[in-house]
Amino acid sequence: MRCLVPRPAGSYLPEPQGPGGAETGRERDLRKSSPSKLQAALGSGHCAAMELGPLEGGYLELLNSSADPLQLYHLYDQTDLAREELELCSEPDMDTINCEQFSKLLCDIEGDEETREAYANIAELDQYVFQDSQLDGLGKDIFIEHIGLEEMISENVEVLEEAGQKSQKRPFPEELPVDLKHRKLAEPVTVPMVTGTFLVGPVSDSSALPCLSPPAVFNKEPESNQRWLEETVLMPVPPSSSLLGCLSLPAGPIQIVPSLPSLPQGLWQISGPGTGVSSMVIYQGEMPQASQVLPSNGPAVQGLPKSPDRPGSTSPFAPSATDLPGMPEPALTSRANTTEDQMSPTQCLEAHEVSSKPPKWPESVEQFCRSLRDKYRAEPADPEGILVEVELVRARLERGGDKSQERGLATPDWAERQLARGGPAEVLLAAGDRRRPRETQVIAVLGKAGQGKSRWAREVSRAWACGQLPQYDFVFYFPCHCLDRAGDRYRLQDLLFCLGPQPQPADEVFSHVLRRPDRVLLILDAFEGLEGQDGLLHSAGGPVSTEPHSFRGLLAGLFQRKLLRGCTVLLTARPRGRLAQSLSKADVLFEVTGFSAEQAETYVTSYLERAGVPERRERALALLHGRPFLLSLSHSPTVCRAVCRLSEALLELGGEAELPSTLTGLYVGLLSPAARDSPPGALAGLARLAWELGRRHSGTLRDSQFPSAEVRAWAVAQGLVQPVPGAPDAELAFSSFLLQCFLGALWLALSTEIKDKELPQYLALTPRKKRPYDNWLEGVPRFLAGLLFQPHAHGLGALVGPAGAAVGARKQKALSRYLKRLQPGTLRAGRLLELLHCAHEAADAGLWQYVVQGLPARLSFLGTRLTPPNAYVLHSALEAAGRDFSLDLRSTGIDPAGLGSLVGLRCVTHFSPALVPGSEALSPQGFAE
Ligand SMILES: Nc1ncnc2c1ncn2[C@@H]1O[C@H](COP(=O)(O)OP(=O)(O)OP(=O)(O)O)[C@@H](O)[C@H]1O
Description:
There is one protein chain. This protein is an alpha/beta fold. It is built from 36 helices and 19 strands. Helices cover 39% and strands 9% of the residues. Adenosine-5'-triphosphate binds at residues 382, 386-388, 390, 447, 449-455, 526, 574, 603, 637-638, 641, 737.
C-alpha cells in the first residue's frame, strides 16, 4: 500500500491542508520527518535521491516543491522498502494509514469473525459498485445515490445523465448490513483501512480537470479543423469524459479520475469536512483503455510508476486474500506485478499453472477432459481457416433517444472506445478479475450479425483446449439455437455432456464439475436465437433440483445462480429489442465491431493464399478498391468473405473483371451460378423457407423442412446451408444471416402470396406499430429495393429467369409509390440511413434524386451508429444533393476515415463531432416521426 504521492506544483492533486486549512495528523507527521533521513537510509548511490539533489526541510515543503513527482514517488517507495520509520501519531489516522499500521490492523482483526464478515460485506459493496459492468463513472453515481448523497451530486453528473448515459438503478444488495446501506460518505468510515492509495490534502478547483472540448461547431476552416482532428481523433486518445467527473460534496468536490494505463488502479478523490479526512484519492482497478494517455495538462499522477506493491485487490473496498489472511476465499483473483495488457497467453498459462494446478484427478475425469480438448481442437474456428486478429471493445447499454426508452448498445465516439486488449485468453482473464466471489459471472459478447461473435466464442474453446485458459477445468460450448427444441428436456448433466465426447461420461465427472463451479466456463453462443431469451436473465423460479427441464429452464437456473453457482457464463448475442434490455444483468459487456479497411485487406490476402492463388492478391485488391462501397461493407467479415468469393470467381473467368457496385449485386453475383444449376423451383423453395424461419427468428433447418431431399442436397452442395459447428445431429443453418435476409427478400419479391400493397410494411422505414413483423431479418428492406429496382436482367432475372418479371414490375411500382411519398426530413436518423441504403441499392436515378433532395439542411445523427457503409451512403447523398448541410456527428462512433470524408465535403459547412457532452451547436432536430 502506498500512502503518499507528492503533488507537483499546479496539479489538481490536493494541497497539503486539512479541512478549513487545519493541519491533519498526516501533515504533522510529514512535517516531522526529514528527507535527509531518507537519503541516509537509501545510501548515496540511490539515483532518485541523487537526481533530486539535497533535500531540505520537511515533507510538506517537499510536497510543495517543484521536484519531479516521479522521483519523489520512487524516493518514498524505496524508503518504504528500506523500512525507514515514519513516526506516526499513536492513534491510527484514517487518512494516513501506512503499510505497517495496516498489517497491524490485519493482525488485530484476524480471528475476529464479526470484523471478517464486515470486510466481506464491504467487499460485496465494492463489487456491487465498482465491478459493475457499467463501470464508466456512472456506477459511481449510483453508489453516491444509494448512500444518500443524491442531493449533493454536482452539475457535472447531471451533464452525464443528460447525455443519456445514466446507469440503470439496481436494488441495493439485500445482504448488506443496514448501516452500510445508509452510511454517508461524510461519516468517518473505515474505508481507508483497506487496500488503496490515499493522497492527502484538499481538492483543488475542479475546473482544473483536464477536459477535452472540441470546438462546438466546426467551420470550413480546414486548418483548424484538421488540427483538431489530428489532436483528438487521429492522435492518442484522451481519457473518456464519461470516466472523468467531479461530484460536489457540500464542503468540496469528489473528483473521479479515470484509470490510466500507467497506473495500476484508478483514482477516487474524496474531500470535505466531516469526511474525517482532508481529502483522499483512492485507486480503483479498471480495464485497460484504448491508447489512453492524459493530455499535457492532465493530472500529475500521469507519471506515477506502476506500483511495485505486493499483489492485492484492485479495489480499496475489497481486500484481497493477500491482504486479509483470514478471508475464506480470495476477494479477487490477483496477478502478481502484472497488468492485463502486459500478460501474454503463455505467461497467463505459467502464472496459473503455478497457482491453480489442480490436484490429480480420477482417470475418468482426466480422460473426459482430454477428449473434450481434442474435440475443440479438431473443430475449426472458421470454415475458411482464416484468422484476422480483432480486438473486442468494452460495451455498455444506454437508453435510446426514442420514446420507447429501450436500452441498446451505447455508441461511444471513436476516441472513447475502450479496447479489450489481446485474444480470448487475455480478455477472459481480465474479465475474471472483476468477478464476485462465489457468484456466477455473466460475460456478454455482442455485435451485429456476421461480425464474428461465434467465431470469437469458438476461439475461446480452442484457446482452452490449447491450455490458454487454465483458470477453467471445463469449458462447455453450446450453440443455443440448436438446443432449444420444444419438448426436449435435460438434467444439467445431460446438457453439459450432450454435445461433448460420446459416450457420455460417468457420474464421477459430473460430480467433479459440481465440486468447483468457479472453474467451469459455459459458452452460450447465438443466445438471441433462444425463443423468449429476454426473460431468461430476469425470470424467477429456475430449477434447483436435478429434475429434467427445458433448455431455457436450465439456463434460467444458471442465471439465477441456482445451478452451478460461481461458474462463468459467456454468451454471444445480437443485442436487439428486449434482449438488449435484459443484458443489463450481465457483469461484463463486450462488442465485436468487425474489420477495419486494413483488416479487410488482410482477410482478402489470407483468403487468396488459402485458395492457392496468392498471385491474384493485387488484382483482387484492385477490384475491391474499385468499389469503395463494397470496401466499406467489408467492415463486416461476412460481407468480406462474400466479396472474396465473388472476386475469386470473377478472376477465375479471366478477362475484364469488375465487382458489382451494390450489396444486392454482390449476392446476385454469388447466387446466380447456383441458381442456374438448381433443381426446378429449388431457389424459390429455399427463399420461402428463409422468410418463414426468419419470421420466427430462426435460421436453422431440419431435414424435414426442406421442400425435398434434392433441394437439401443442392443447398448443401452450393454452400447455401451448412452444418452448425458444435451442434448435435448435423443441424443445418443458412451459411450466413445476410444470405438468409437476401433469400427472404427474394421471396417477398417473387411471391404472389404477398400482396403488392403489403410490401411497404416489410420495410424498416415504417413505424414499428404499423409493421406486421419486427424486421428480425434486418437486411431485407435494402435487398428488396435492390431486387425490385435494379434492371431485371441483373437482378431477379439473373436468379429466376423471365418468370418473375411481371410480378417484379408490379411490386416495383407499389414500392416506388410508397417511397416517393416518404418525407426524408421527417424520419429519425436510423430510418433515414435505411432509406439511403434502400435508394442506393435500388440504383435508380429518379428514386435517388427524390431522396437526396428531401434531405433536411441540418442533419443530426446523435447517438446513431455511423458504420463505414452508413458513412459511405451519407457521403454519396450529400454530395449528390448539391447544397449545404450541417451535420451533428456526436456519439456516432464514426471512424476517422468516415469523419474525414464527410467533413471534407465542400457542401458540409458546419459539423459538430464533439467527443464530450456539452456542445450544443447543432441541436438534434427534424427527426420526429
Ligand atoms: N476475425 C476474423 N477472422 C477471420 N474470419 C472471421 C473473423 N471474424 C469473423 N469471421 C468470419 O465471418 C463470418 C461470420 O462470423 P460469425 O459467424 O462468427 O459471426 P456472428 O457475429 O456470430 O454472426 P451471427 O450473429 O449471424 O451469428 C464467419 O465466416 C467467420 O469465420
